[in-house]
Amino acid sequence: MTRKEFDEIFSSNINNKTQSEDSEVLEIYSHMLQTEHLEDYWWEYHGENYLMSMIEKFSENIFEKIRQDIPNWTGYQIELFAQTLVSNDLRDYKINERIELYLDLFEIPKSDCDLYNIFYYRAYMNLELADKTLLIRLAEKLNYKSIDDLLADV
Asked: Measuring CA to CA, which of 19, 34, 82, 120 is 20 to 30 A from 6?
C-alpha cells in the first residue's frame, strides 16, 4: 500500500496518526484503523494473531520500521500493538526483537496505555528463548524481583 492509497482511504479518520511512508507499516496501521473499534474479545482471540501473522510475512526489519512510527500512534493503538507483541500464537517468533520493542514502548508518553497490566495479564510468549540481558531489563521494568519470578509468571 502506498501512502497515496492509504490517504485516499483513511484521510478523514480522526484516529489516523501515522507519519510513515513505508508500505508495510501502512498496511499494519490500516488494519489497526479498520479494527481498533472492535471489542477486546475480538482482539484477544483474532486481532493479535492476525496482526502478528502480517508482521511475520514482512521484511526482516519490520519492527525497526514500526519503532520509528509508533510514537505518532494513539495510546489505544499502542496498547493494541503492545498486546500483539506479548500475546499471540507465535510464541517463539522473534522474541528478542519483540521484547526490545515492548521495552521501547515505555519511553513513549501515552497516559492511556497501561503496559504493565498488558504484560501481567496477557503475556503469552516463550521467554526461555530470550537473551538474558533483555530478560533482566524486562524484569526490572515490570518490577519483578528476578528473572525467575518473571518466567514463572508467563
From this structure: 82
Residues 63-118 have pLDDT tens digits of 999 999 999 999 989 999 999 999 888 999 999 999 999 999 999 987 678 898 88
Of the candidates 124, 119, 32, the one whose C-alpha atom is nearest the C-alpha of residue 69 is 32
Q: How far is 75 from 83, CA to CA, in rounded Å?
A: 12
Q: The cell 495510546 sits on which residue?
A: 75
Residue 136, burial from CB neighbour count under 10 angstroms (0-12, 13-18, 19+): middle
DSSP for the chain? --HHHHHHHHTT-TT-------HHHHHHHHHHHHHTTS-HHHIIIIIHHHHHHHHHHS-TTHHHHHHHHGGGS-HHHHHHHHHHHHBSS-TTTTHHHHHHHHHHHTTS--TT--HHHHHHHH-BS-GGGS-HHHHHHHHHHTT-SSHHHHHHH-
- Distance from C-alpha of 69 to C-alpha of 65, rounded to nearest angstrom: 7
Average pLDDT on 34-62 reads 89
